[in-house]
């Protein structure tokens, strides 16, 4: 690459979040891809000594392959800003905003992107009585990869019992929208394509990261107007949140419930550091468009910068 800006890359992976194991797999894949593209890569398992490790490594840029809290919510981004090391993916503000589901939904609504009915509540309140009519979903306000989710089905007599001492607070409670699981990756200012995710049950952590846990159909077989809306909403979410580099927005499309016309499409959330494992959606969409994995990770790292 004649226009390459960086050569020595710190690959941040692992970390202390609930998504540590996924991040380690993402990190190994990205390190291999970057080496195949000709970069020198220093793999760093991000822990309390991360600043010291980065100072010792003296990288030109950092590829952030961390997932979940601390690595994806603006904290590591702030450290990299302080050390003046250009880094991949979104900056401090966009990372923190996208990780906070309630605030992200407020941004979506302001941008005209449809969201599901939702509210915030404490664990004790949720366990005492239904805080909205079933079916609904209870989830942490600042986790990813379907960590800590409770699905309350239609006709459930009792609410989920959530141990208050272990629960993050507050929790998000949102109406469960039946239908098809869709996702769109955005690369810079370009939405890639729409993938439909087909799982045998709830698209949980195992379905996302286990081989054979789900089946991906791309491009998704959808009405043209729904495909166009998904691409448009994903780009709008990326821009409204202030993301840079790669993001991936997830949607639910209900095309079966009577009385919803041609179908109800809502955005669920935007991931500012999507998975890069062998079963991950972003590399799959890029490959569908002829972008190899080394080309993809090379583009991501060359897009690295400090917050603007």
Summarize the entry for a quick read.
This protein is 32% helix and 23% strand. With 308 residues, the chain is of the alpha+beta class.
Please name the defining characteristics of this protein.
308 residues; alpha+beta; Rossmann fold; 5-stranded antiparallel sheet; 4-stranded antiparallel sheet; 12 strands; 32% helix
Structure explained in plain terms:
This protein is an alpha+beta fold and 308 residues long. Among the domains are: 8-89 and 292-302, Rossmann fold, CATH 3.40.50; 118-175. It has ten helices and twelve strands. The strands form three sheets. The chain has a five-stranded antiparallel β-sheet. It has a four-stranded antiparallel β-sheet with strand order 4-7-5-6. A three-stranded parallel β-sheet has the order 2-1-3, sandwiched between helices.
């Amino acid at each position: 690459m004649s226009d390459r800006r960086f050569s020595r890359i710190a690959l941040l992976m692992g970390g202390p979040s609930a998504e540590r194991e996924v991040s380690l797999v993402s990190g190994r894949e990205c390190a291999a891809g970057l080496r195949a593209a000709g970069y020198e890569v220093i793999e760093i398992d991000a822990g309390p000594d991360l600043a010291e490790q980065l100072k010792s490594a003296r990288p030109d840029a950092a590829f952030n392959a961390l997932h979940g809290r601390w690595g994806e919510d603006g904290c590591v981004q702030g450290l990299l800003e302080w050390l003046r090391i250009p880094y991949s993916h979104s900056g401090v503000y966009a990372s923190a905003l996208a990780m906070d589901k309630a605030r992200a939904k407020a941004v979506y609504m302001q941008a005209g992107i449809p969201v599901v009915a939702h509210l915030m509540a404490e664990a004790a309140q949720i366990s005492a009585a239904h805080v909205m009519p079933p079916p609904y979903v209870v989830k942490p306000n600042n986790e990813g990869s379907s960590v800590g989710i409770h699905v309350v089905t239609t006709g459930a007599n009792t609410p989920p019992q959530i141990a208050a001492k272990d629960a993050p607070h507050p929790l998000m409670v949102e109406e469960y929208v039946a239908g098809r699981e869709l996702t769109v990756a955005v690369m810079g200012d370009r939405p890639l394509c729409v993938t439909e995710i087909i799982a045998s049950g709830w698209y949980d952590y195992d379905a996302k990261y286990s081989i054979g846990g789900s089946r991906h159909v791309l491009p998704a077989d959808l009405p043209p107007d729904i495909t166009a809306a998904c691409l448009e909403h994903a780009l709008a979410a990326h821009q409204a949140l202030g993301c840079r580099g790669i993001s991936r927005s997830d949607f639910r499309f209900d095309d079966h419930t009577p009385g919803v016309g041609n179908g109800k499409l809502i955005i669920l959330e935007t991931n500012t550091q999507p998975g890069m494992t062998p079963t991950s959606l972003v590399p799959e969409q890029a490959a569908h468009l002829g972008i190899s994995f080394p080309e993809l990770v090379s583009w991501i790292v060359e897009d690295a910068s400090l917050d603007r």
